[in-house]
Amino acid sequence: MEIISLCYPEQVPENNQEEIVCAIGFFDGVHKGHQKVIQTAQNLAKKQNRKSAVITFTPHPSVVLQGTKKTVSYLTPLPEKKNILADMGIDILYVITFNKALAQLTPSEFIDQFIIKLGIKHLVTGFDFTYGAKGIGNVNTLDKDGNGQFGVTIVDKLTENNEKISSTRIRKLIQLGEMTSVKELLGRPLFIRGHVISGAQRGRKIGYPTANIEVDSKYALPKTGVYAVTVKLDNRVIYGMANLGYNPTFEDDYKIKLEVHLFDFHEDIYGKELILEWQAFTRPEQKFDGIEQLIDQLKQDEQEIRHLFGQFEQ
Questions:
Q1: CA-to-CA distance for 184 and 179, rounded, in angstroms?
Q2: Contact (CB, 8 A) for 103 and 133
Q3: What SS3 class is residue 274?
Q4: Residues 112 and 53: beta-carbon distance below 8 Å
Q5: Which phi and psi angles does 47 have, rounded to 5°?
Q6: Which of 29, 173, 202, 286 has the highest CB neighbour count under 10 A?
Q7: What percent of the chain has pLDDT over 70?
Q8: pTM higher than 0.85 for the full model?
Q9: Which residues make beta-bridge pairs with 96?
Q10: Average pLDDT of 19-30?
Q11: What pLDDT band is residue 207 in, cutting at 50, 70 and 90?
Protein backbone atom coordinates (compact mmCIF):
# COMPACT_ATOMS: atom_id res chain seq x y z
CA MET A 1 0.00 0.00 0.00
CA GLU A 2 1.31 3.41 -0.97
CA ILE A 3 0.95 6.03 1.77
CA ILE A 4 0.78 9.70 0.78
CA SER A 5 0.70 12.45 3.43
CA LEU A 6 -0.87 15.82 2.62
CA CYS A 7 -1.07 19.03 4.63
CA TYR A 8 -2.98 22.06 3.39
CA PRO A 9 -1.81 24.55 2.22
CA GLU A 10 1.85 23.45 2.14
CA GLN A 11 1.25 20.04 0.60
CA VAL A 12 -1.57 19.85 -1.89
CA PRO A 13 -1.88 17.23 -4.58
CA GLU A 14 -1.00 17.95 -8.17
CA ASN A 15 -3.60 16.95 -10.72
CA ASN A 16 -3.37 13.17 -10.72
CA GLN A 17 -3.71 11.36 -14.00
CA GLU A 18 -4.46 8.04 -12.29
CA GLU A 19 -8.10 7.09 -12.02
CA ILE A 20 -9.05 6.18 -8.48
CA VAL A 21 -12.05 4.90 -6.54
CA CYS A 22 -11.78 6.26 -3.02
CA ALA A 23 -13.47 5.81 0.35
CA ILE A 24 -13.32 8.85 2.61
CA GLY A 25 -13.76 9.21 6.37
CA PHE A 26 -11.94 9.37 9.68
CA PHE A 27 -12.49 5.63 10.18
CA ASP A 28 -11.40 5.41 13.83
CA GLY A 29 -11.55 1.73 14.71
CA VAL A 30 -12.07 0.63 11.10
CA HIS A 31 -15.14 -1.15 12.50
CA LYS A 32 -17.62 -3.20 10.48
CA GLY A 33 -19.47 -0.11 9.30
CA HIS A 34 -16.22 1.43 8.07
CA GLN A 35 -15.24 -1.86 6.46
CA LYS A 36 -18.49 -1.84 4.49
CA VAL A 37 -17.64 1.61 3.06
CA ILE A 38 -14.05 0.64 2.25
CA GLN A 39 -14.98 -2.71 0.72
CA THR A 40 -17.61 -0.99 -1.43
CA ALA A 41 -14.84 1.21 -2.84
CA GLN A 42 -12.62 -1.83 -3.41
CA ASN A 43 -15.36 -3.69 -5.25
CA LEU A 44 -16.11 -0.69 -7.46
CA ALA A 45 -12.41 -0.25 -8.20
CA LYS A 46 -12.18 -3.84 -9.42
CA LYS A 47 -15.26 -3.46 -11.61
CA GLN A 48 -13.98 -0.19 -13.07
CA ASN A 49 -10.38 -1.42 -13.40
CA ARG A 50 -9.15 1.44 -11.21
CA LYS A 51 -6.99 1.71 -8.11
CA SER A 52 -8.62 1.63 -4.69
CA ALA A 53 -7.83 4.34 -2.17
CA VAL A 54 -8.79 5.62 1.25
CA ILE A 55 -8.67 9.22 2.49
CA THR A 56 -8.37 9.63 6.24
CA PHE A 57 -7.33 12.47 8.55
CA THR A 58 -5.01 13.13 11.47
CA PRO A 59 -5.44 14.22 14.22
CA HIS A 60 -9.08 13.86 15.20
CA PRO A 61 -10.97 17.00 14.09
CA SER A 62 -12.00 17.73 17.70
CA VAL A 63 -8.37 18.55 18.53
CA VAL A 64 -8.51 21.45 16.07
CA LEU A 65 -12.16 22.45 16.17
CA GLN A 66 -12.57 22.34 19.94
CA GLY A 67 -9.04 23.34 20.86
CA THR A 68 -8.87 20.58 23.42
CA LYS A 69 -5.55 20.29 25.23
CA LYS A 70 -6.16 16.82 26.57
CA THR A 71 -4.69 13.82 24.80
CA VAL A 72 -7.17 12.21 22.43
CA SER A 73 -7.28 8.42 22.52
CA TYR A 74 -8.13 6.34 19.48
CA LEU A 75 -9.64 2.93 18.86
CA THR A 76 -6.97 2.66 16.19
CA PRO A 77 -4.10 5.15 16.41
CA LEU A 78 -2.86 6.13 12.95
CA PRO A 79 -0.08 3.47 12.71
CA GLU A 80 -2.62 0.74 13.53
CA LYS A 81 -5.12 2.17 11.06
CA LYS A 82 -2.43 2.02 8.37
CA ASN A 83 -1.72 -1.64 9.18
CA ILE A 84 -5.40 -2.60 9.05
CA LEU A 85 -5.98 -0.84 5.73
CA ALA A 86 -2.88 -2.45 4.26
CA ASP A 87 -4.17 -5.86 5.35
CA MET A 88 -7.48 -5.06 3.65
CA GLY A 89 -5.62 -4.65 0.35
CA ILE A 90 -6.05 -0.92 -0.28
CA ASP A 91 -3.76 0.38 -3.04
CA ILE A 92 -3.29 3.98 -1.81
CA LEU A 93 -3.82 5.65 1.56
CA TYR A 94 -4.00 9.45 1.67
CA VAL A 95 -3.43 10.86 5.18
CA ILE A 96 -4.55 14.48 5.33
CA THR A 97 -3.50 16.63 8.28
CA PHE A 98 -6.56 18.20 9.83
CA ASN A 99 -5.56 21.76 10.70
CA LYS A 100 -7.22 25.18 10.97
CA ALA A 101 -6.51 26.01 7.32
CA LEU A 102 -8.20 22.79 6.17
CA ALA A 103 -11.13 23.39 8.52
CA GLN A 104 -11.78 26.77 6.88
CA LEU A 105 -12.08 25.46 3.32
CA THR A 106 -15.54 25.72 1.84
CA PRO A 107 -17.08 22.41 0.76
CA SER A 108 -16.39 23.15 -2.92
CA GLU A 109 -12.79 24.18 -2.16
CA PHE A 110 -12.22 20.94 -0.26
CA ILE A 111 -13.62 18.88 -3.14
CA ASP A 112 -11.46 20.73 -5.66
CA GLN A 113 -8.26 20.41 -3.62
CA PHE A 114 -8.59 16.88 -2.30
CA ILE A 115 -10.94 14.95 -4.56
CA ILE A 116 -10.66 16.30 -8.09
CA LYS A 117 -6.90 16.93 -7.98
CA LEU A 118 -6.27 13.43 -6.65
CA GLY A 119 -7.84 11.96 -9.75
CA ILE A 120 -10.74 10.40 -7.87
CA LYS A 121 -13.32 9.26 -10.37
CA HIS A 122 -15.66 7.68 -7.86
CA LEU A 123 -16.08 8.66 -4.21
CA VAL A 124 -17.58 6.32 -1.60
CA THR A 125 -18.77 7.69 1.75
CA GLY A 126 -20.88 6.72 4.69
CA PHE A 127 -24.37 8.20 4.91
CA ASP A 128 -23.34 10.71 7.62
CA PHE A 129 -20.15 12.06 6.00
CA THR A 130 -19.66 15.85 6.22
CA TYR A 131 -16.94 18.10 4.84
CA GLY A 132 -15.93 21.73 4.46
CA ALA A 133 -16.07 24.58 6.98
CA LYS A 134 -18.43 23.80 9.87
CA GLY A 135 -19.31 20.51 8.16
CA ILE A 136 -21.92 22.17 5.94
CA GLY A 137 -21.03 19.89 3.04
CA ASN A 138 -22.72 16.50 3.21
CA VAL A 139 -23.73 13.57 1.05
CA ASN A 140 -26.50 15.66 -0.54
CA THR A 141 -24.05 18.32 -1.79
CA LEU A 142 -21.35 16.03 -3.23
CA ASP A 143 -22.83 15.94 -6.74
CA LYS A 144 -23.12 19.73 -6.89
CA ASP A 145 -19.65 20.40 -5.48
CA GLY A 146 -18.15 17.73 -7.72
CA ASN A 147 -19.67 19.34 -10.81
CA GLY A 148 -20.01 15.97 -12.50
CA GLN A 149 -16.29 15.16 -12.35
CA PHE A 150 -16.70 11.99 -10.26
CA GLY A 151 -19.35 9.47 -9.37
CA VAL A 152 -20.69 9.09 -5.83
CA THR A 153 -21.82 6.05 -3.86
CA ILE A 154 -23.38 6.53 -0.42
CA VAL A 155 -23.26 3.52 1.90
CA ASP A 156 -26.14 3.25 4.34
CA LYS A 157 -25.61 2.64 8.03
CA LEU A 158 -24.76 -0.86 9.22
CA THR A 159 -26.66 -1.98 12.30
CA GLU A 160 -26.30 -4.64 14.95
CA ASN A 161 -29.25 -5.34 17.25
CA ASN A 162 -31.13 -2.54 15.46
CA GLU A 163 -28.53 0.06 16.50
CA LYS A 164 -26.02 1.77 14.26
CA ILE A 165 -22.45 0.50 14.48
CA SER A 166 -20.38 3.57 15.29
CA SER A 167 -17.12 4.55 16.96
CA THR A 168 -19.14 6.38 19.64
CA ARG A 169 -21.14 3.24 20.44
CA ILE A 170 -17.95 1.18 20.61
CA ARG A 171 -16.31 3.68 22.98
CA LYS A 172 -19.28 3.46 25.34
CA LEU A 173 -19.01 -0.33 25.36
CA ILE A 174 -15.27 -0.11 26.06
CA GLN A 175 -15.94 2.13 29.07
CA LEU A 176 -18.35 -0.52 30.35
CA GLY A 177 -15.82 -3.31 29.80
CA GLU A 178 -18.14 -5.04 27.30
CA MET A 179 -15.25 -6.44 25.29
CA THR A 180 -17.20 -9.27 23.66
CA SER A 181 -19.63 -6.75 22.17
CA VAL A 182 -16.71 -4.52 21.16
CA LYS A 183 -15.17 -7.45 19.32
CA GLU A 184 -18.43 -8.10 17.48
CA LEU A 185 -18.68 -4.50 16.26
CA LEU A 186 -15.02 -4.11 15.34
CA GLY A 187 -14.76 -7.52 13.72
CA ARG A 188 -11.67 -8.17 15.87
CA PRO A 189 -10.65 -7.63 19.51
CA LEU A 190 -9.68 -4.17 20.72
CA PHE A 191 -5.93 -4.19 21.29
CA ILE A 192 -2.99 -2.20 22.58
CA ARG A 193 0.59 -2.45 21.36
CA GLY A 194 3.43 -1.80 23.78
CA HIS A 195 6.87 -2.83 25.00
CA VAL A 196 7.52 -4.83 28.15
CA ILE A 197 9.07 -2.58 30.77
CA SER A 198 10.53 -3.26 34.20
CA GLY A 199 8.22 -3.37 37.20
CA ALA A 200 8.35 -4.04 40.92
CA GLN A 201 8.53 -7.82 40.29
CA ARG A 202 6.10 -8.55 43.12
CA GLY A 203 4.20 -11.00 40.92
CA ARG A 204 7.24 -13.21 40.57
CA LYS A 205 7.57 -13.46 44.35
CA ILE A 206 3.98 -14.66 44.78
CA GLY A 207 3.98 -17.13 41.91
CA TYR A 208 2.30 -14.87 39.34
CA PRO A 209 5.05 -13.16 37.32
CA THR A 210 3.70 -10.37 35.15
CA ALA A 211 4.88 -8.52 32.09
CA ASN A 212 4.44 -4.80 32.62
CA ILE A 213 3.37 -3.19 29.36
CA GLU A 214 3.88 0.49 28.64
CA VAL A 215 0.54 2.27 28.28
CA ASP A 216 0.43 4.69 25.35
CA SER A 217 -2.21 7.37 25.89
CA LYS A 218 -3.09 7.24 22.19
CA TYR A 219 -4.92 3.93 22.70
CA ALA A 220 -8.48 3.85 24.02
CA LEU A 221 -8.44 1.74 27.18
CA PRO A 222 -11.29 -0.13 28.87
CA LYS A 223 -12.31 0.47 32.45
CA THR A 224 -9.94 -0.71 35.16
CA GLY A 225 -10.13 -4.33 36.25
CA VAL A 226 -9.05 -7.86 35.41
CA TYR A 227 -9.36 -9.16 31.85
CA ALA A 228 -8.98 -12.35 29.90
CA VAL A 229 -6.48 -11.46 27.18
CA THR A 230 -4.57 -12.96 24.32
CA VAL A 231 -1.07 -11.72 23.60
CA LYS A 232 0.67 -11.84 20.25
CA LEU A 233 4.42 -12.24 20.54
CA ASP A 234 6.78 -13.21 17.71
CA ASN A 235 3.95 -14.75 15.64
CA ARG A 236 2.67 -16.69 18.65
CA VAL A 237 -0.64 -16.29 20.48
CA ILE A 238 -0.46 -16.73 24.26
CA TYR A 239 -3.39 -16.80 26.68
CA GLY A 240 -3.28 -14.82 29.87
CA MET A 241 -4.93 -12.52 32.36
CA ALA A 242 -4.27 -8.82 32.69
CA ASN A 243 -4.83 -6.22 35.36
CA LEU A 244 -5.40 -2.66 34.22
CA GLY A 245 -5.41 -0.24 37.11
CA TYR A 246 -3.53 1.32 39.97
CA ASN A 247 -2.43 -1.66 42.12
CA PRO A 248 -4.36 -0.44 45.20
CA THR A 249 -2.95 -3.21 47.38
CA PHE A 250 0.60 -1.89 46.93
CA GLU A 251 0.65 1.42 45.10
CA ASP A 252 -0.28 4.96 45.95
CA ASP A 253 0.95 6.94 42.93
CA TYR A 254 -2.32 6.88 40.95
CA LYS A 255 -0.54 6.05 37.70
CA ILE A 256 -2.39 3.52 35.59
CA LYS A 257 -0.52 0.27 34.96
CA LEU A 258 -1.07 -2.69 32.67
CA GLU A 259 0.27 -6.02 33.88
CA VAL A 260 -0.29 -9.35 32.19
CA HIS A 261 0.36 -12.85 33.51
CA LEU A 262 0.94 -15.22 30.58
CA PHE A 263 -0.21 -18.78 31.16
CA ASP A 264 2.44 -21.52 30.95
CA PHE A 265 5.06 -19.04 29.79
CA HIS A 266 8.54 -18.67 31.28
CA GLU A 267 10.63 -16.65 28.79
CA ASP A 268 12.46 -13.36 29.39
CA ILE A 269 10.63 -10.79 27.27
CA TYR A 270 11.90 -7.50 28.69
CA GLY A 271 12.04 -4.89 25.93
CA LYS A 272 9.95 -6.92 23.49
CA GLU A 273 6.87 -5.54 21.79
CA LEU A 274 3.55 -7.24 22.53
CA ILE A 275 0.09 -6.87 21.11
CA LEU A 276 -2.45 -7.38 23.89
CA GLU A 277 -6.02 -8.14 22.83
CA TRP A 278 -8.82 -7.46 25.32
CA GLN A 279 -11.09 -10.53 25.20
CA ALA A 280 -13.35 -10.31 28.26
CA PHE A 281 -13.75 -8.36 31.50
CA THR A 282 -13.85 -10.68 34.53
CA ARG A 283 -13.90 -8.48 37.64
CA PRO A 284 -13.19 -4.97 38.95
CA GLU A 285 -9.84 -4.08 40.44
CA GLN A 286 -9.87 -4.36 44.22
CA LYS A 287 -7.70 -3.79 47.26
CA PHE A 288 -6.79 -6.82 49.37
CA ASP A 289 -6.02 -6.97 53.07
CA GLY A 290 -2.90 -9.07 52.55
CA ILE A 291 -0.78 -11.17 50.21
CA GLU A 292 -2.60 -14.43 50.92
CA GLN A 293 -5.96 -12.93 50.05
CA LEU A 294 -4.47 -11.59 46.82
CA ILE A 295 -2.97 -14.97 45.90
CA ASP A 296 -6.29 -16.73 46.52
CA GLN A 297 -8.06 -14.29 44.23
CA LEU A 298 -5.40 -14.65 41.53
CA LYS A 299 -5.88 -18.42 41.62
CA GLN A 300 -9.63 -17.93 41.15
CA ASP A 301 -9.00 -15.48 38.31
CA GLU A 302 -6.68 -17.92 36.56
CA GLN A 303 -9.13 -20.80 36.89
CA GLU A 304 -12.01 -18.70 35.54
CA ILE A 305 -10.04 -17.32 32.61
CA ARG A 306 -8.52 -20.66 31.67
CA HIS A 307 -12.04 -22.09 31.64
CA LEU A 308 -13.18 -19.20 29.45
CA PHE A 309 -10.43 -19.99 26.95
CA GLY A 310 -10.94 -23.73 27.25
CA GLN A 311 -7.38 -23.99 28.58
CA PHE A 312 -6.08 -26.11 31.42
CA GLU A 313 -2.97 -25.67 33.50
CA GLN A 314 0.06 -27.46 32.11
A1: 9
A2: yes
A3: strand
A4: no
A5: -65, -35
A6: 29
A7: 92
A8: yes
A9: 6, 57
A10: 97
A11: confident
- The per-residue DSSP string of 115-174 comes to IITTTEEEEEEETT-EESGGG-EETTTHHHHHTTSSEEEEEPPPEETTEE--HHHHHHHH
Separation of alpha carbons 54 and 92, rounded Å: 7
63-67, 222-226, 227-231, 284-288: range with lowest mean pLDDT: 63-67
160/59 Cα distance (integer angstroms): 28
- pLDDT higher than threshold 90 for residue 78: yes
| CATH fold for domain 179-309 | Elongation Factor Tu (Ef-tu); domain 3 (2.40.30)
Rounded Cα–Cα distance for residues 287 and 128 (Å): 45
Neighbour-count burial of 189, counting CB atoms closer than 10 A to its CB (0-12 exposed, 13-18 middle, 19+ buried): middle
Quote the CA–CA distance of 149 and 111 in Å, as a whole number.
10
- Residue spans of the domains in the chain: they are 2-157, 179-309
CATH 3.40.50.300 for domain 2-157, yes or no, is no
**267: closest CA among 185, 209, 306?**
209
β partners of residue 186: none
30: left (phi over 0), alpha (psi -120 to 50) or beta: left
